[in-house]
Structures are given as structure tokens and as C-alpha cells.
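User: I'm curious whether this sequence folds into something compact or stays loose and floppy. Could you predict its structure so I can see for myself?
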Amino acid sequence: MEVDFAVELGAQDEILELPWAASDGGPQYYDLKGHPELLLKVDEAQRIPELGEFLSAINSSASILETAKCDAWCSTELNPEEEIFGAAWKFASYIDLVFSQEQPRFSFPQHEQLAKRLTQLLQRVPEIPAAAEFLIRRCYYQEAAEVRDGFYITCYLFGYGDDEPQARQRWAISLKLVENAIRQISSAD
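Assistant: Here's the prediction. I'll summarize afterward.
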């Protein structure tokens, strides 16, 4: 599994506002840590059971993290750097992760340490045609009438295969590996 992390805090980089809601009344943020029953309202979790299992595990009381946003898709459009996998298909997802406790949400060093620990753990897993990237980004946390500037991590996962089912299976394996790494880090803290 190829794995890496990066920092994206530039003016043009992605940001997250938490809580968030689509302007058209569509998707929105659900506090799955405080209200696990709301997982039933997350379309992606219903469409892709493996993602639902991951969201349930990461939002459990045993995890130091919770999720803020996610999506998953399949594609035959591969970037030149993905050619090393020799695949025709990729199954991909992103999951935005935030610390459950308030203090670490505003600490860049704690986000960097988490990204490094996840990367180190996942570099030890058996080689599979999959990739993970952890991006540290800026998050604006709405707290009552105040907005606080903090951070979050986007986890991109990709599974590669000769067809869609194989790519999805390899993605699901990589998703379980990330879940296990987060569980390991959470139990150590």
C-alpha cells in the first residue's frame, strides 16, 4: 500500500466549516459520535456498507476521532502516477476526520503527529494495490457565536483493480487497514 501525508494550508486549498450543510437542503453534517443513529441519514453509508462500517467504528466512543464528511466513487480515469498499479479501474473515497476532543482540534502539531503515525503504521501493512493519503487542512469550527480556526485531516483512499469489483475489494481492504490503524492509535492515547 502506498501511503503518504501532506499539509495543505494555502489560501487556495480546501477548507472545512463545521458544522456544514449544503445550501440546497441536500447533504449536511451529522454528529455521528453523539448520535450514532444518524448514520442512517448518510447516503454514502447506505450505498456502500463498508463505508458505513468505517464511519460507525471511527465515530465510536473508543476512537479519538470522528468524521465530518465523506464520499466514494469508482473511475477508469487514472493519473500517470497511478500507472504503477497496472490497473484499469480505481475505487476511491475521501473521509474528513476531526479530533473528538476540543483542544487537539486547534493544534497543528497534534494533527501532524497523527498523520505521521497513521502513515508509519500503514507503511508496515502487506503490499496491496491501494494508496492512502492524509492531508492536513484548515477547519473553521462554529462554536456558539464564535468561529475558531483549527485543523482537520482528509483521508483519501484508492483501491486499484482490473475491474470495478476488484478495485472496490482492494479499497475495502485499505479502508479496514486505516480503521485498524486509527483503533491502534486511539487505544494508545
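Summary: Residues 2-24+43-188 form one domain. The radius of gyration is 16 Å.
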